[in-house]
Design goal:
- The complex is a heterodimer.
- In chain A, 26% of the residues lie in helices and 21% in strands.
- Chain A is built from 4 helices and 7 strands, in the order αββαββββαβα.
- In chain A, the strands form 2 sheets. Chain A has a 5-stranded mixed sheet with strand order 1-2-5-4-3.
- The longest helix of chain A is centred in the last third of the chain and has 17 residues.
- Chain A is elongated.
- Chain A starts with a helix and ends with a helix.
- In chain B, the strands form 3 sheets. Chain B has a 3-stranded antiparallel sheet. In chain B, strands 6-7-8 form a 3-stranded antiparallel sheet. Chain B has a two-stranded antiparallel ribbon with strand order 4-5.
- In chain B, 49% of the residues lie in helices and 12% in strands.
- Chain B contains 17 helices and 8 strands.
- The chains are: A alpha/beta, B mainly alpha.
- At the A-B interface, strand 3, strand 4 and helix 3 of A face helix 1, helix 8, strand 6, strand 7 and strand 8 of B.
């Protein structure tokens, strides 16, 4: 099934959405508007003629200085129908893309990685923290305007100094917190 | 009697823990020996390979991607080469396809042997590691014979192979294939009916077929839950459709089923290797004949001006790849390996993204462990066969 076949199959289920077939050399590619992404994904997963039950990859590409600069790329797999599909969602620095974690739980960490590397916000993601870079890292390394060689001073920490009273208070605080659960 | 006051205990497992296959950190919340919650933390081995690749020429990326999943090195470079060849529109000669299949299957055997040795070691069968590593050493020797490098041969190149097969290649591979099936029997004799091993693995870390797909665990983990998906059968590449082999599946979805699947995969890989080695003639093409990508033969470089110029261009500027993107998956030892490449039409990649089966497996660890015992965590991690180099890239 090529991109146009998939668009035809989707049209009655997600009415009023304008899909755009993308150029590709391997398998069908669809551009999906960000505000209809979740509905489209649910339709792709549940329609019997499509049945994209697995999300194998979420990534992004930065086409700086084009606007919108990012494309978020989803690779879907339908085992019953032996199909692959690539979804693309355009995003810019200020906008956001809805999370598809409720459709495929595997999106959780993949979207976290995209946020970590590109700074694309996934709206509704319950745990959008850094995945690969340290928690206190600044910037998003896979962006094209992020320098390749950076001179970052080595991070050092002062030894933790704590008085006996503070230590006892900390223990007590942890204990009450645990009892509350 | 007054109600007993219980507290959960938070235990930090890793990042320097021998059974986490590298630098994986788990924060466990324990209620006695029962796991209440498990939170994996990754990123300790992040080396920015994808960012580095954007600064290299197309061919220079091959050694880089091999260093991602360092146990299944050549399935990474196969996926990368196939993706770029898709963009270039190159077709490989039959001999190159067969050699690629053979070497990819040997790599799968080598990777599964490391998994077998470390997995059994963690469960308590310490001697398995020595038996498994001894057999893997023979495959490393074949790598050394082929490319001069044991771990990361970089033998698959865009446009074919780096050079022709060396003398003695067929003999070395045949010697290994003749020896190895008896060794699989030996391994299975040591483990498959081993009471301790079975008690530690049966019914542990169960995942259903639907959950395996939802968490994206396509590969041996999903096959152990009854999903017969194998890229080699569903989306054949490099001529796998012409080979006669089976895709092993199990129904139980526990650690023992994953062990059974991988052991049977070892046997299937041997079958594929036997078919491939009989198909490969001792001389013939080792690259496609596209002058854009493959440098001209050395005798022409010394005698013809055009060949010299072409040689110089390929080694100084590299070649350009038409603009576009491609994703070609291959069945790696850990599941679906794929490289998403984006080209802007220049001699360097615009974006390289490796699909990491280990990342998804670690993401699903809380689901796999699910209220198990602390001792099961080690068995479950071993059964997912994660490689942190693949996970963190």
């Amino acid at each position: 099934m090529d991109a146009h076949g998939i668009i035809t199959a989707l049209a009655p289920i997600v009415p009023g959405t304008v899909y755009e077939a993308g150029a590709s050399v391997d398998f069908a590619t669809l551009y999906v508007p960000a505000n209809r992404l979740v509905e489209t994904c649910l339709a792709l997963r549940d329609t019997p003629s499509l049945r994209f039950t697995a999300l194998v990859e979420v990534t992004a590409a930065d086409y700086f200085p084009r606007d919108p600069r990012f494309e978020v790329v989803y690779h879907l797999l339908s085992i019953p129908n032996r199909l692959r599909l690539r979804l693309k969602v355009r995003a810019n620095e200020t906008g956001s893309v809805p999370t598809v974690q409720d459709v495929w739980p595997s999106a959780g960490w993949l979207e976290r990685e995209v946020w970590d590397m590109f700074g694309i916000v996934f709206e509704g993601h319950p745990d959008l923290r850094r995945l690969l870079m340290p928690e206190d890292w600044e910037g998003h390394p896979q962006r094209k305007d992020y320098p390749v060689q950076i001179r970052k001073p080595a991070q050092t920490y002062e030894p933790l100094e704590i008085s006996e009273e503070e230590f006892k208070a900390n223990l007590q605080r942890d204990r009450t917190r645990r009892m509350a659960h | 009697m007054a109600e007993l006051r219980t507290e959960t205990m938070t235990v930090n497992m890793g990042p320097q823990h021998p059974s986490t296959h590298g630098v994986l950190r788990l924060v466990l919340e324990l209620d006695g020996e029962v796991i209440r919650s498990l939170r994996p933390t990754i990123g300790y081995l992040h080396t920015g390979i994808e960012k580095t690749a954007e600064q290299k020429k197309w061919q220079q990326v091959v050694p880089l991607v091999e260093r991602m999943d360092y146990l299944g090195a050549q399935s990474n470079s196969l996926a990368y080469a196939l993706s770029v060849e898709k963009l270039l529109g190159l077709e490989m000669p039959q001999r190159v396809r067969d050699i690629r299949v053979l070497i990819a299957e040997l790599q799968r055997i080598a990777s599964h042997l490391i998994w077998l040795g470390t997995h059994a070691l963690e469960i308590g069968a310490v001697s398995m590691l020595f038996y498994a590593i001894r057999e893997r050493e023979l495959i490393m020797n074949i790598n050394e014979l082929v490319a001069g490098f044991r771990f990361f041969p970089s033998y698959f190149r865009i446009g074919g192979l780096r050079e022709d097969l060396p003398r003695g290649f067929h003999e070395a591979v045949n010697a290994f294939l003749d020896r190895f099936p008896a060794k699989i029997d030996e391994f299975e004799g040591l483990l498959s009916k081993n009471d301790i091993f079975m008690r530690r693995t049966q019914g542990v870390g169960v995942v259903s077929a639907d959950a395996a797909l939802a968490w994206g665990l396509v590969g041996p983990i999903a096959r152990a839950s009854g999903v017969d998906y194998d890229v080699r059968k569903y989306f054949p590449y490099s001529g796998y459709e012409t080979y006669d082999f089976e895709v092993p599946t199990e129904r139980e979805g526990d650690v023992y089923a994953r062990y059974r699947v991988r052991m049977r995969e070892l046997r299937e890989s041997v079958t594929i290797c036997r078919q491939a080695i009989t198909r490969i003639p001792s001389t013939g093409a080792w690259a496609c004949d596209d002058p854009r990508v493959v440098p001209p033969p050395k005798d022409k470089v010394y005698t013809e001006m055009e060949a010299l110029i072409q040689h110089f261009l390929i080694y100084s500027q590299g070649f350009t790849v038409p603009a576009g993107d491609a994703y070609v998956p291959v069945e790696g030892p850990r599941g679906e390996h794929g490289v998403y490449v984006v080209s802007d039409g220049t001699n360097r990649p615009w974006r390289i993204k490796m699909r990491a089966p280990s990342l998804l497996a670690i993401q699903a660890l809380p689901t796999l462990v699910d209220a198990g015992l602390i001792a099961d965590v080690v068995a479950v991690i071993g059964s997912t066969d994660v490689v942190m180099g693949d996970c963190d890239r």
